[in-house]
Amino acid sequence: MTYEEVFSNNEKFKIIRCIAILEDIEDENKLSEIIEKERLDKNHRRIQAVFEEIKTQIYNPNLKLRITQLINNCEICNIEKYDRNPPKIPYKITETPSKPREIVHIDVFYTLKKQIFMTMIDKFTKFAVAYRINGRNWIQSKTNLLLYLNTYGKIKKIIVDNELGFKAIPMQQFLKDENITIHYTSNSNHTSNADIERLRNTINEHIRLLRQNERSRHETVEKILRIIGFYNNTIHSTTKTKPIDFINGKIHEDKYEDIHDLILKKKENYINNLNKDRKDVDIQEGTNFIKEIRT
């Protein structure tokens, strides 16, 4: 008998194509052990990050519920986790890259011990790096940007805040020679460099968590690099992919369009939600308009 003969009259019947075999975990204790190992190996990752990682390996109908229960009952997480959803109100959709290294966000990060790091994150792949620097001058910025270019390839555009090192004339000439466009974010719009801001928050969060788990409470270069490793080896909530997989060649170019669409869709949903209560300002010709900026 054929499929049409047996099931064609049943509108509720659907065929699901499966491309992977997962291990069924029925024992609650074993399930809890797997969840705990995954989240602790990645330094107390959040619910969605742990779920995205484990769901590709095992199956349990209550997997996400159990992850939520365990993480919400973690004392360290409740003490040290920061609120990832502060109010942000962007006014329009920003440029969305379609492949790696089209846009890279750059920022200078200070630890509590005044160690300085130049952090960079690819807007498309979400792959991040951190370079220890001795100062914020243009020589330090150029040296580490050149190191990035030699390691990962050419960049089309960088986004930075009003960092003086990137405004120096020698640095401007270097960027021109490398055909790199630079965009400076506005002081009044903290969402302009949102990708790097989220990375900074993640680093700070991991520093606090590591202080709870380790004897040493000092921020060291090793700790910062370990934190970047945790981040790059965790499935990103937007791209549904580990950032490190782009570097390892596990993500083929034929997947780029799908990843671009995921990034754009999440951005559009986010902006549409924020703009529900916003209204366009009608400015009549010939009148002056002053908008109060609140930071």
From TrEMBL:
One of its GO terms (biological process) is DNA integration. Residues 96-251 form the Integrase catalytic domain. GO terms for molecular function: nucleic acid binding. It comes from the Eukaryota. It comes from Ceratitis capitata. This is (Mediterranean fruit fly) hypothetical protein. The lineage of its organism: Eukaryota, Metazoa, Ecdysozoa, Arthropoda, Hexapoda. SUPFAM superfamilies: Ribonuclease H-like.
